[in-house]
Write a structure and sequence with these properties.
Elements: H1 7-12, E1 20-23, E2 27-31, E3 39-45, H2 60-77, E4 84-87, E5 103-107
Antiparallel strand pairs: 1-2, 2-3, 3-5, 4-5
């Protein structure tokens, strides 16, 4: 995978509008345009990392920070106490649609089992 511009990197730069809930120099979080639950937020690194497989050793703090941002947003959205799901898809079999690493924060209703056994 390359580090070419993505739909998400254009959102980070403000070239494509989005409902941005949080942005700093490391990550951007915005509402998913096709929500799967009452709360569905995407948390992305501002740096283009195509997939989980492309995370480097130097990205350790950044990836951990994404979880801190997710926790804070869950609290702000009022879903932290009842629970929520964090999901990262990787590659075609993982149904990754945009090749810019992103974490889905999903909640606001019971989500059921993630995979059917």
């Amino acid at each position: 995978m390359s580090n070419e511009e993505t739909l998400f990197s254009k959102i980070v730069k403000g070239e494509i509008p989005a409902d941005i809930l949080f942005q700093d120099d490391r990550v951007t979080a915005f509402r998913d345009i096709n929500p799967q639950a009452p709360t569905h937020i995407l948390i992305i690194p501002n740096k283009i990392i195509p997939t989980v497989n492309d995370i480097g050793e130097t990205d350790e703090a950044l990836i951990g920070y994404m979880f801190i941002v997710a926790r804070n947003l869950a609290k702000e959205e009022g879903i932290a106490e009842d629970g929520y799901r964090l999901l990262i898809n990787c590659g075609s079999h993982g149904h990754q649609e945009v090749y810019h690493l992103h974490m889905h924060l999903v909640g606001g209703r019971p989500l059921g089992r993630m995979l059917k056994g």
